[in-house]
Amino acid sequence: MKEPGYISGVTLHSVDDPTLWLVIGTWVDVEPWKAWETGMERRDAMRKMESLLVAPEKVSVFSFVRRVVLNLLTRSTGKKKRYLIT
Questions:
Q1: Is residue 24 in a domain?
Q2: What pLDDT band is residue 80 in, cutting at 50, 70 and 90?
Q3: Which of 2, 21, 22, 27 gives 12 a disulfide partner, CB atoms 3.0 to 4.6 angstroms apart?
Q4: Does some domain include residue 67?
């Protein structure tokens, strides 16, 4: 996914409950996540998945317990950009 502020994601499927899935997205901070959450691309994706859900989607936002500093190279300029994740 190429959204501003998106770092990575993982999708987990419960071993005990085949109807339970957990999607974890890691973002630079909550603001880019909120923008994506209410954006058209996510709405379109959720519209396609709604018929597969056995219960309403549940979204929870968490913050990291410890601070992590990431020094990433930007694709466009090749320069380092520093991100503080809290």
A1: yes
A2: confident
A3: 22
A4: yes
Q: What is the pLDDT of residues 18-38, one digit of tens each?
A: 889 999 999 988 999 999 999
Structural domain includes residue 1 = no
Residue whose C-alpha is closest to residue 86's, from 33, 3, 29, 44: 29
Domain that holds residue 13: 6-85
Q: How many domains does the chain have?
A: 1
Rounded Cα–Cα distance for residues 20 and 54 (Å): 9
pLDDT bin (cut points 50, 70, 90) of residue 40 is very high
**CA–CA separation, 16 vs 14, rounded Å?**
5
- Token digits of residue 61: 């936002």
Task: For residue 63, tell me if it sits in a domain.
Answer: yes
Q: Which parts of the chain fold into alpha helices (H)?
A: 30-37, 40-49
3-class secondary-structure state, position 16:
coil
Single-letter residue type at 12: L
